[in-house]
Give the backbone structure.
Amino acid sequence: MKNIDSNTHVRGESIYVDDIPPRQGTLYACVFDSKVAHGHIEALDVSKAEAHPDVVKVVTYKDIPGINEIGGIIKDEPLLAEKEVHFQGMPIAMVLATSEHSAHEAVKRIEATIKAHHPIVDPREAHAKGELIIPSRTFRLGDSENAWDECAYIVEGSAESAGQEHLYLETQGAYAYPTENGSIRISSSTQGPTQVQRTVGAVLGLPMHKIEVDVTRLGGGFGGKEDQASAWATFVALGVYLTGKPVKYILDRMEDMRMTGKRNPYVSDFKIGLSNDYKIIAYQAEYFQNAGAAADLSPAIMERTLFHSTNSYFVPNVTVQAHSCRTNIPPNTAFRGFGGPQAMFVIEAAITKAAEEIGVPASVIQKANLLKEKDKFPYGQPAGGNEAVDSWVRAEEKYDIKALRAEIDAFNQSNQLYKKGLAFMPICFGISFTKTDMNQARALIHIYSDGSIGISTGAVEMGQGVNTKMVQVAAHYLGVDPSRIKIETTNTTRVANTSPSAASATADLNGKATGIACNALVKRLTGAARKKLGLSEQAVITIKDEFIHVDGQQTELGWEALVQFAFLERIALTENGHYATPTIHFDKEKEKGHPFAYHVYGTAITCVTVDCVRGRYEFDYVKIAHDFGSSMNKIVDLGQTEGGLVQGIGWMTMEELMYNKEGRLLTNALSTYKIPDIYAVPKEIEVDFLESDKENMAIFKSKAVGEPPLMYGIGAYFAIRDAVKAFNPQAEPPFSAPFTPEKVLMGLYDGKANNVESVPVGAVKAKG
Ligand code: MTE
Ligand code: HPA
Ligand code: MOS
């Protein structure tokens, strides 16, 4: 089935927050934010802004009727700064004006006198100074300290990965207007409508039932709108509360890049020990997560880092410790993979460094240590199957790894100035919110008397195709044509207490809830059919292809006639389904449990060609064997795989997020922050659907696909390193992602400073 949004997307008819026609009297908000990363507000003068003819009000923390607090996990984040500022971009005041332009103009007239303190941007410095968001956590398996004696090889090192800007095409924003009796209706570009509702309620001092949050779809979220959409929705709601007028705020790109958090950068130390036959005996890692100025989702992200510390490998002795470090940059947040990719980069760096020291290809170590069924993760859950090995073997065989290697070796032997590199990247990603209680969802289904169907769930469509999947689920269970089904907006008044659409679990959770509601409706409808057709209790009645079937035989009774009959019989044609993932649990005291419904696995083979004069590179191909379970929509899932991969390659190669020592974002626009475009995409992406038919708590046995493929992008880093090593075997480039062309160039000539002339310059010229 095609994505149901294709038609409106292509015609430009899909509705985003900024497409909602503004109501008469709408005011426009704009935030005045701190230019100082850490400091004390000594004076704030908003009088010149207030004097602007189009300004209706300038709002500060003093105007907040409820609590000045938007922190989701920890209450450590004010909506508007009071006395202290903790990052450049921290909101201090909000202007409400009759036009967007005037709101922006008035903001420029606000003056703040801020006494600057020393800002911290380095997580190691924060850690050394005891600036931690939560107490550090450690996962242990076996006894790594006493295992080093058994190791034939021990390698230590460090690895760092930078942050990543979400760069959703639709920037953050919200639009709100007053309804009766002090209630407020908000359209928000959020992955978490309930989180918005809760936050707005707390800040305005209103009960949640007075706040209605509605979401049609997002122009991308990627985790950036799981919690961080709440602030902007709260600003407009506060504006509505204070003025009684509709209020709109859509951030422009630079506001969004400056004021919102991104993927957490990490710096980490590792130590790995191997036996003579390349088995990993012990692994230790210490992660310093750059949380930014407030907790946001960083504690949960840090937890997932620990869960994914050993990627798809079995390691018998593991000690991994993570610190969530408070710094003076915008609070970082969820980003596709949620701390998992950061951990996986570190163990891949450890394996690569060990391989280089031992003198074997990294793939030899990787393959020797893949998880097998029943092998335990450090947190106690066993691997549910052999997909780690299966996907690796499938990739090797299907793509003929011997031929690929021979081709690369031949190329490298006959080319001095271009070198190819290859890397394997196996992935393993746990599906479920790591916070067990978040794994629940609801669906509300109406069958209208004409036979058409409306479905509301907690799922937010952000481009990942979840609405299409919900149509597929309902059409299957109800036995009707998909064209009968409309997916309604995601709305807190229709479906309450929802978890955000995140953790790749949206289709699983909301699909199961939809299935449960459909089954209840089918039970009532088949009961009605029994009566209408005068059938006995023994007759097996099903609905298929829009007709009622009795004992497998199609009858004359169609869907519309049955619905009409049931309605006249006064049978309820509405149902609410509730689903909570069974089995999962986790004990934070022991750091052991069974937190995930299942794991998703796969293996990617990445090949790159590095231009050894310029340091530039192009990806020849990425060939993937991915564990989709039994995919319920191959087109959508392929799109997720390709999109995730390219986003991962961007993170690993070109998206260089930089803050200076004063905590100012230097890469604050698309002129300085580079994301992959069509030219950066691998020339060839091949995806093999590794199908399995297991019952694994997923919807229709189709495994979640949203986040896992991003981690194939990590292979890009190691493929480039392999090519650099082919050119310069002495090179020891630090494990520092992204591997930008500048860093590649440094690596190519690492230790070669005195014999650069040995590169035949004439050949360079000939190549232009
Ligand atoms: N795909 C598109 N097109 N846009 C997005 O914003 N977000 C990703 C992934 N794929 C995203 C996307 C992230 S971070 C997650 S957690 C999942 O989709 C969420 O949707 P799912 O749970 O339905 O997979
Ligand atoms: N993934 C994504 N978002 C989350 C999670 C998670 O595991 N836990 C809480 N929010
Ligand atoms: Mo995705 S990072 O769980 O929104």
Notes: Residues 220-223, 336, 462-464, 466, 501-507, 640, 643, 704, 706-707 surround MTE (ligand 1) (CB under 6 Å). The first strand starts at residue 27 and ends at 33.
